[in-house]
Amino acid sequence: MAQETTPIEITADDALEWDRDAFTFIARGNAKIVQGKTSLTATTLTAKYTEEDGNTIIQTVTASDGRPTIKTDTETLVADKAVATFANTKDGGLDKIVATGNVKITRDNNVMSGERAEFDVKTNTSKMTSTGKGRVKAIFYTKAKNSQ
Question: Which tens digit of pLDDT belongs to each residue from 28-38?
């Protein structure tokens, strides 16, 4: 039996549009998509999906305006554009996130910045890169070890 994943919830202040022929949902006005402890907010979110055996399978969600913000229980990411990719199965969840343009990731006081960030949610790995518009930068705050 296939294991159920946490549902994906899409909300917006102004409108939710559903184009069945184009297989898209568009959320407008302070739009937000949430799955579990992860959320993506932007002015407008566009979700591409497929249908299989009566199930709606979200494939990608694109946020390209309003400084998209991705939050987890430990990190916050802001960028000019973010694309979240979901596993391509009925019971798959968030798989990968690609953020581009003035990307900033914060975790507590620690900050990473660059022009492009890729996150593999399944393997819990990430990569921040430069696109020639500047250097990749990280600032980590460390605690001094107590000497005995």
Answer: 999 999 988 88
Q: How many Cβ atoms from other residues are within 10 Å of residue 36's Cβ?
A: 13
- Report strand pairing: 69-71 vs 81-86: unpaired
Cα separation of the two ends of the chain:
55
The structure's pTM equals: 0.80
Distances (CA, A) of 23 to 3, 58, 60, 140: 24, 10, 11, 42
Please report, as a single letter, which amino acid is at residue 90.
K
CA angle, residues 126, 44, 51, in degrees to nearest 5: 75
Task: Answer yes or no: are the C-beta atoms of 40 and 28 closer than 8 Å.
Answer: no
Amino acid at 124: N
- In 10 A of CB 146, how many CB atoms? 5
* Mode of pairing for the β-strands spanning 55-63 and 38-52: antiparallel
Nearest one of 60, 59, 77 to 68, comparing CA atoms? 77
Q: What single-letter amino acid sits at 102?
A: N
Q: Domain 8-139: give its CATH superfamily.
A: Lipopolysaccharide (LPS) transport protein A like domain (2.60.450.10)
